[in-house]
Amino acid sequence: MANKGYAYGLSADVARKIAGKRDPAKEKEVEDWIKAITEVEFDAKKSFEENLKNGIILCKLANKLVPKSVKKISDSNMPFKLMENIQNFLTMVENYGVPKTDLFQTVDLFEASNIPAVTATLFALGRVCHSKPEFEESSPSYKNWPTLGPKPSAENKREFDEQTLIEGKKIIGIQAGTNKLASQSGQSFGGRRQVNK
Fold this sequence. Notes:
- The chain is mainly α.
- The protein has a domain at 24-135: Calponin-like domain (Actin-binding Protein, T-fimbrin, domain 1), CATH 1.10.418.
- It has helices spanning 9-20, 24-38, 48-52, 56-65, 79-96, 106-110, 115-129, 162-170.
- Helix 4 packs parallel to helix 5.
- The longest helix has 18 residues, at 79-96.
- It is flat and about 90 Å long.
- The termini are far apart.
- Residues 24-130 form the Calponin-homology (CH) domain.
- InterPro entries: Calponin-like, Calponin_repeat, CH_dom, CH_dom_sf, SM22_calponin.
- One of its GO terms (biological process) is actin filament organization.
- It holds the Pfam family Calponin.
């Protein structure tokens, strides 16, 4: 981690808020998903972020999803090499179909400054995987890998015939107003008070 002093004031509030967003159950779900695909064991003595910090496990995941997508995985302890591993993973994930807005920053993982963003990116990757042939049972390239997170919904476009469209125009929606239900008749807000002597 970088040499940072203690956070005070607004910085401390932000750090507490980010720490409050961490969900150990989701982190465990991500860990189990990565283990199932890569067959790499996480070090039980290390935390979630410590296992992922060097980027090696993430690069192995990338190479399982798209073979040879990360050409060189550095096992050096030099910080810039470790950050390069993380950046290579992020590049592969973006090319795989994860929106740029769902990606974490390299520093979020390397300095463990925003682990919920790391977890969210891995869940976004899991959502994208639902549409890939390796994860679809009906596909010949199915690999019996588990999925992560909910399956994205598919478009359900409907086509109506001309007669149905004409009938639909005759219906007055409740938002258009009605005089058969509750109304404001009898209310006198803003009116003058009549005082009888």
